[in-house]
Amino acid sequence: MKKHIPNIISAARIIAAIVLFFFEKITYPFVAIYIFCGLSDFVDGKLARKFEVTSVLGAYLDTIGDVLTYLALVKILVLQNLVPLWAIVWYIVAMIGNLIAAIIAKKRFGEFYFIHSLFGKILGVTLFILPLGMRIMQSITQNYSAVCMSVICVVATLSAFETIYIQLKSKEMLTDITSFKQLFSI
Fold this sequence. Notes:
The chain is mainly α. The protein has 8 helices and no strands. The longest helix is centred in the last third of the chain and has 26 residues, at about 145-170. The relative contact order is 0.12. The model has no long low-confidence stretch (mean pLDDT about 90).
């Protein structure tokens, strides 16, 4: 049973992320579910590594949960006109970079997969704290949305370049990069 716990947590995050799509505003229930999604994202990978049960299925479930959670957040930010169009376009282009990396993986290693990379993890944390960051920046500058989205887009772009670099340089299929040392030893 222990070996299934990380995937069960990831599946629960997918269900919770789907629930987020039913919200139209950032309310307390939205925030509670959103926090569950963020914390479960942190826990599932840690447990998979601890129990030594990392798998391609687990990586897929994790990625699906991440994408659904952040699409739900983007939906609400767009509905509330908090995201400038340029940021949406930039972010989509950066995500296409991650898709290109997965296509490179298919060509090189015979399997279409996404890497859980350092900048991908930084992006996840940055997206997770985005609602709080927007609240803080709102009290500092009128351009709080543009400032927050610029940070997100830069990190997303770095993540895309990083995953493409990894897929082009690695000698074997890598699904999880946990340190700069590991990244630069490829």
